[in-house]
Amino acid sequence: MLLNSKFSTMRNLIFTFFAVILAAGLMTAQDDLTGLTGKKAIKKVSRAYNAFKLDQSNGGDNLKEAKRIIDFVIKQDDTKEDPKSWILMGDIYGAFSSYNQAQKVLNPEFEDLEPNGGMIAFQAYKKALEMSPADDDALEGLRQNISSISNAGLDAYENGDYLTAFNSFRSVLDIHQLLKDNGAASPLDAEAEYDNQLYITGLAAMSAGENATAKTFIQKLYDKKYDKPAVYDAMYKLAIDDDVAAAEEILTVGREKYPDDLGLLFSEINHYLKLEKVEVLEGKLKFAIEKEPDNPSLYSTLGNVYDKLYQGSYKGGDMVKADGYFANSQDYYEKAIKIKPDYTDAIYSVGALYYNKAAIVTEEMNALASDYTKEGTNKYNLKKEEVETLFSEALPYFKKVEKLDPNDRNTLIALKEIFARKNDFDTSNEFKMRLEKIESGETIDKSFFQ
Known about the structure:
This protein has 450 residues and is an all-alpha fold. It has 19 helices and no strands.
């Protein structure tokens, strides 16, 4: 018992001793900088920074302390014009970037310490070079900093922060130029690396809505015929609002050079859809379907093209073509629905196909209303029967859409009209009330046709 008691006492003494040492360490963790010169403070910076490099297991506390002191140093009269102060600042702030990345490998939820470290380091090294051109330490710091800034840009882009991504990518290009201006090697010396940096910088600017800025980067690649289809796609999108003819030429050249690229193909399809050049789209959409046979939107879009062609032929009196286009339209809509059974756009479009045809035939029927001859009456009755059949064909599709989306305004309008024509005014009024609700900003929670 006596031995155990002595051991217990000894353990308590040792624990107390280390507790005192720890407390002393905590009290001196943040040195008081009051009255210090920059040169004296810089010794403390080096001590804290070296401690961090030796041991990074304390949550970056030593690095944060080094940052606190270097921020003091670069403001002091005896060190603010010393390039070594700024180089050390660049090293410290750059260390935050590498530390953050290492921690995220261990814990993806880790929150960055000094998230702008890489960018601040860049400015510090740049300041050092202004004081001491071609300084080897500053140039090496810049070279090392490129990967940190680039990784930060990629993270920002993936998180949808496109403006931050653009600023990061542009800074990489600025660092490259700064290295070249000082006669130093750069990671972007390889043409392919430099061109890729131009591309991602322009892409980030476009994603951020800064099209004029994006064009300055993408244009360089386009002018040198950079071998990437996305450059032609980007140039087309940057030109379309200012010069349709020029944009179309870019698109044409890109499609000729990269006939199998889906990005350019879809841009071309959207281009002609916007211009309503439906006669051009049939072949292009069929080609796209060959490339992506399981893409329901392609089938639906082609169904829409045939719908427009049908309407044009019908109004022009070419009923043979009109009937063919109508059948093709329905066929492609149905193919889209087969791939995606809850594809409301395609389901609605089949209903609208019948509904719109019924509306056209209704006009023809009304034109016969004043002809009271036997022949005129027979024609009127045939048209009336055709209208009723077409509305009945449309109804199941609108019902299905209403089940899937009871707040679809166009579907509610169609259902209200169809039931009114069927003299089912109770149901028609139900959809009228539902329509009024959504138009007043309310939401309908339950489908009528559940």
